[in-house]
Design brief:
six-stranded mixed beta sheet, 6 strands, single chain, alpha+beta, Alpha-Beta Plaits
Length: 103
């Protein structure tokens, strides 16, 4: 359970929004993000945007989030990541699991 101090299981809980551009649609990027989030125990979603970018919102342990961001920046072998915009958001709004949303 998340305490009022933002600490859960000994780690600080953070939330971030990522907007990823490059060759990131039609190359398995959403599945790549979902699998990475599952490995890291993060909650949130990933979806394609109409302009060809991919949006990711994730919440969880700060150290896990750092590893997740590195994976997002790398992307799947079939894709190419050009830029990743990162915005800090407020923890507490994510779904209980990480899912792929239809965008």
């Amino acid at each position: 359970m998340l305490g009022g101090d933002g600490i859960h299981g000994g780690g600080v809980i953070v939330a971030r929004r990522f907007v990823v551009s490059g060759r990131v649609q039609g190359v398995g990027y959403r599945f790549h993000a979902r699998d990475a989030a599952a490995r890291e125990g993060l909650r949130g979603f990933v979806r394609n945007l109409a302009d060809g970018r991919v949006e990711v919102e994730a919440e969880g342990d700060a150290e896990a989030m750092e590893r997740f961001e590195r994976t997002l920046r790398q992307g799947p072998p079939t894709g190419r990541v050009d830029t990743v915009e990162v915005t800090e958001t407020t923890p507490g709004a994510a779904a209980p699991v990480f899912r792929i949303e239809l965008g």
